[in-house]
Amino acid sequence: MYRNSNKDKKIAIIGGGGWGTALAILLGVEVEKGQKQIDVHLWIRREELAREIAKNRINSEYLPNVKIPSVVNISSSLNDTVSKADIIIIAVPSQYVRRTVQEMKPYIEKKAIICSASKGIELGTFKRISEVICEEADMPRRNVAVLSGPSHAEEVCVGKATTVVSASISESTAKYVQEILNTQTFRIYTSRDVKGVEYGGALKNIIAIGAGICDGLKKKSETTNIGDNAKASLLTRGIEEMARLGISLGSNKRTFYGLTGWGDLLVTSYSNYGRNRLVGECLAMGMTLDEIKREKLHGMVPEGVETTKAVYELSKTINVEMPITEQIYLILYEGKDIESAVYDLMTRSLKPEHGYYIKGIPKRVKLAFRK
Fold it and tell me: Is the predicted pLDDT of residue 3 greater than 50, yes or no?
């Protein structure tokens, strides 16, 4: 499975948002510099927008100040983009992955590798994105990889140093993606813990909304009782909450303290590029979710908003206690007052820091954090 050369490989990037565009720019620059001999294609759903970006070489909505290299082929045709592709990178919002894979299935080569660069949990099914891909593409799991880590598109596209993880149950597939996509500024590690990598990438967006709420409360009032201590506590307890759910679903605890868990959570929670952090900040400043989408996010819903709903419902289904996620859910979907949510978190019953309350599953799993 592991190919030793990237020469003449066709890379199809599905999704013309910030992340898909950034990956196309990253690889296109490598081709222009003679560092890679690959054929880069970028698929954009709207035909008119695809023509505009192909003509101007600028994605003005997401990355307005960065040119897309001329070697990147831009199209709204899935046939042209996906046919004969060696690696297909899916970078569309998580709730649209199933529909997109259904549409591109007729053009997928049997030996192709599909790499998910989307971070989220599907509403209703609670499935990870790689599971959705395998199901809809009728593809073996060994042919599917996940790319995740602290990687804001705004930095990747201009060559700022970034490290991420390529995960697959097949070591050779993870290494293949690593070899093809790795550059001097985009370093890739490998992992076989697909579940942990995906849950880390999805769940950190929920905690990042909470981090933004901390920022917003500080900005809103000098007399608030929320400060740096609170934000540090939220992130630390948040990573424990992420790991608790992940372990209960078969992930490795160590993964959550690596690039795709702790690393991704940190960058999302502190960077001005973090859209989920921005949502929390604006909510704390008094804006509604509809106002935030319209005025701050080009009408788009950040992954963390819908992931919060999916994960909250999943946690109730499998009986795993996730107090931070629950309060974020109540703020987003039931209009709970933020100050009341903070109070309820701070006045919960007293507990030890580690190794407790995964309810309804065997004691040996409850104690997983201690091992």
Answer: no
